[in-house]
Amino acid sequence: MDGREPRVQPPTLENYSDMPLFNTKAVVHNTGVPAPTLRAWERRYGILAPRRGENDYRLYSERDMIMVSWLRERVESGMTISQAIALLRSLEPLRKGKGRRARAHITVSQDTSGQPNAIAPSRFSVEDLSVTLLHQFTALDEPSASRTISQALAIYSVEDVCISLFTPTLVEIGKRWASGELSVTVEHFASAVIRAQLDCLFRSAAGVESGPLVLVGCAPGEMHELGSLMLALFLRRAGIRVAYLGQNVEIASLLTSMRTLKPACLVLSAATHSHIDALAEVGHVLEREVGLRTLFFFGGQAFVGEPELAQSIPGRYLSGDAHQATDELKKKMTA
Ligand code: B12
User: What is the best residue among 224, 245, 269 to mutate for testing ligand 1's pocket, by most ligand atoms within 8 Å of CB?
Assistant: First the structure.
């Protein structure tokens, strides 16, 4: 994950005693996991190996209890127990500093009825999740793709999922589409699923109702909106009051709203060169608006590797991804 640590850390098991001291009742009491579930985890996944005390009772260690509590938390966050155990096994080597880059690996999982179900990741690095997601998008399998996204969100922050999972997956889809390997239907399907997910995160993030307003949208004519929607989401999560304007903003009516609302910033995104002139036009229109003190920012894929293209646009160019732009805007707004 581009050097970023997963949000979920594995339990530091070696810090706890492995002395077999606790009976099943104590483990149930301390972890909240019922005894039959504990025995099922033991039997099916071999994760616990209680020793036998007097009267042949099972005895667990403090280390066992920490592991059981950790697994319970993962299950509560939406994983199946087999996924939680796979996650534990894939995080352990990372924590011990022996992190070996996990090879892309996909398995067929089973649902609760024991039936084979859709492709599910057996490892949880973003690279592996991306391979799984690509597979699910290609199969137009929305329930599985949504489950993979939920798993990613259970492990990584929203920002990391957007920057390190969604963005490279979409870029890969774009490459495969351009080379004819993947159909436009799959491209549309994948962007619709991701857009719905971003929209859901955006609507459910607690938005502030006062303070300087930031308007975020796409340059006139620009239909690539996922980058700007991510930016709006990150800004909202950073505590900034934001309104998301969507694709292809229409400048005349936007200006009417801006005269009333007096936003602190307008931030527009361009993904392709063909919309750079439209950004320049917005900049010129805003320059002519005497009395409107809105700062005009722009950025996006169109400028990557060619920042000189920004010079013709009256406004402030923001380089970097949506996460870096959020930090930058936050600094500017609190300065
Ligand atoms: C999905 C997609 C579409 C969807 C978009 C759906 C939607 N609701 O957004 C649809 C089907 C509409 C589409 C249409 C087209 N597309 Co298209 N599309 C893509 C694809 C596969 C993914 C785009 C995406 O969402 N990426 C993920 C986002 C998150 O990345 P991003 O936009 O770069 O944003 C990141 C940064 O740039 C930055 N950022 C973004 N905005 C901002 C703003 C600021 C201020 C800052 C600081 C940072 C920032 O932060 C983000 C996170 O890191 C790309 C492939 C690719 N390489 O991206 C092709 C791609 C962009 N499309 C391409 C093309 C050619 C087209 C069409 C012309 C195809 C056609 N013939 O119809 C049309 C043009 C439509 C238009 N008028 O704009 C080409 C562009 C080539 C080029 N360089 O000019 C690409 C690169 C595919 C390719 N490999 O050839 N597309």
Answer: 224
Q: How far is the CA of 211 from the centre of ligand 1 (A)?
A: 31
Determine whether the shortest distance from the Cβ of 226 to ligand 1 is under 6 A. yes
pLDDT in tens, 192-202: 999 999 999 99
Architecture, CATH, for domain 205-334: 3-Layer(aba) Sandwich (3.40)
> Cα(273)–Cα(276) distance, rounded to whole angstroms?
5
Query: What is the rounded CA–CA span in Å between residue 308 and residue 318?
Result: 12
267 CA: nearest ligand 1 atom = 45
pLDDT digits (tens, 9 = 90+) for 154-165: 788 899 999 999
> How far is residue 129's CA from residue 116's CA, in Å, rounded to a whole number?
19
**CA atoms of 209 and 211, how far apart (whole Å):** 7
Choice among 31-35, 190-194, 206-210, 305-309 with the minimum mean pLDDT:
206-210
191 lines ligand 1 (CB under 6 A): yes
CATH class belonging to 13-100: mainly alpha
Take atom 90 of ligand 1 and give the residue whose Cα is closest: 178
Q: Which CATH superfamily is domain 119-201 in?
A: Methionine synthase domain (1.10.1240.10)
pTM: 0.79
